[in-house]
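Structure request: dITP/XTP pyrophosphatase, Caproiciproducens faecalis.
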Amino acid sequence: MKFVMATHNQKKLDELERILMPLHISVSAPYLLEVEETGTTFAENAFLKADSACRETGLPAVADDSGLMVDALNGAPGVYSARYAGEDATDLDRIHKLLDALKDVPEEKRTAKFVSAICCVFPDGSQITAQGECAGTIAFAPEGEGGFGYDPIFLVNGRSFAQLTAEEKDEISHRGRALRAFAEKLQHRKEQNG
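Returned structure:
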């Protein structure tokens, strides 16, 4: 079955395709129409994007909404992760704003988690949803050259997401976990529908 992927983020698209390929889910093309993310949860925003893409293309559409939740900031930046430092901010701008907000927070209180909500909307109106999380801590400075977004400051077992290979990150990441759960639900749907 062909799916359209509702995202503007090329790095996220690459990651989604890389994780979905071994699960035998092919993505025909990204869907690029801008959708206002008015939801208060990752799941609501993922649905808004997938629903819009499905209605516009007539194809099953998959969307991810994800972000970083920092305990010392009461869950911020949360659903505003991509807009945390303003609309036109770079990844580095967002990282510096977050590190500044945590400058007086000691190491043991820098706990955080990445959250990913996946939603797939089908032309018949049905949907599949899945969520994944990855717990970690926030570093005091960026570490590593890989990844994107907040990856250089998100630590798991002493290494940042930006220091992991793509395969290592996919194995433990919030998005990897959410997409594997999505693939299981999709397989179950296929078996039910014959």
